[in-house]
Design goal:
By secondary structure, this protein is an alpha/beta fold. It is about 25% helix and about 25% strand. The chain has 4 helices and 11 strands. The strands form 3 sheets. A 7-stranded mixed sheet has the order 3-2-1-6-9-10-11, with helices on both faces. Belongs to the 5-formyltetrahydrofolate cyclo-ligase family.
Length: about 190
């Protein structure tokens, strides 16, 4: 299946969700993250939720990471396809950008080479670990700057797409895991 077809399909499925169900599903998903062997790592990059798009609520996961004394890193869009990474602290202030993504106003920059784990937003994924995002390429660019051993984890309300994603590119970075409210997929 083509990415643009999957984007349409999964945006429609997400639109059927309400705030209560996204909250419940996000908590189930967060509990499944505990099954992944990532707890010896230190720097965890995590996206911040676009509530208007019914994305996975990452606050429970951020709370879990902070409770385990992990360094949580959050993104800020810079330029056309790039992200800067800021350490999340008690004093971090946020402002929504033009896509309604909460971003840190300023703070402590963390270089990509320090990031051990990246939690990725996505709309769909297939059984080979290919993913479909919003198509802007921000996370492919980020992941190309991270170490090859950085663990890449997608977060999805929906289970694996049975159809293969047929229009992948060489620059697309595959997932190591994808977590859903029902299970953890390992690739």
């Amino acid at each position: 299946m083509l990415k643009h077809e999957l984007r349409k399909k999964y945006k429609n499925l997400r639109a059927e969700l309400d705030a209560s169900s996204t909250s419940d599903l996000s908590i189930l998903l967060t509990n499944h993250v505990l099954q992944i062997p990532i707890w010896d790592f230190f720097y965890f990059h995590i996206f911040l939720t676009i509530e208007e798009h019914m994305e996975v609520d990452t606050l429970p996961l951020i709370t879990l990471l902070q409770g385990k004394d992990k360094n949580v890193v959050v993104p800020k869009v810079v330029g056309d396809h790039s992200l800067e990474n800021y350490l999340l602290t008690d004093s971090t202030r946020f402002k929504k950008n033009k896509w309604h993504i909460p971003e840190p106003v300023d703070g402590i920059l963390i270089p990509e080479g320090k990031i051990d784990v990246v939690f990725l937003p996505l709309l769909a994924f297939d059984c080979n670990g290919n993913r479909v995002g919003y198509g802007k390429g921000f996370y492919d660019t980020l992941l190309s700057k991270c170490r090859t051993e950085t663990v890449k984890i997608g977060l999805s309300f929906f289970e694996v797409e049975e159809s293969m994603i047929t229009d992948t590119h060489q620059s697309d970075v595959k997932l190591d895991y994808c977590v859903t409210p029902k299970k953890v997929y390992k690739f």
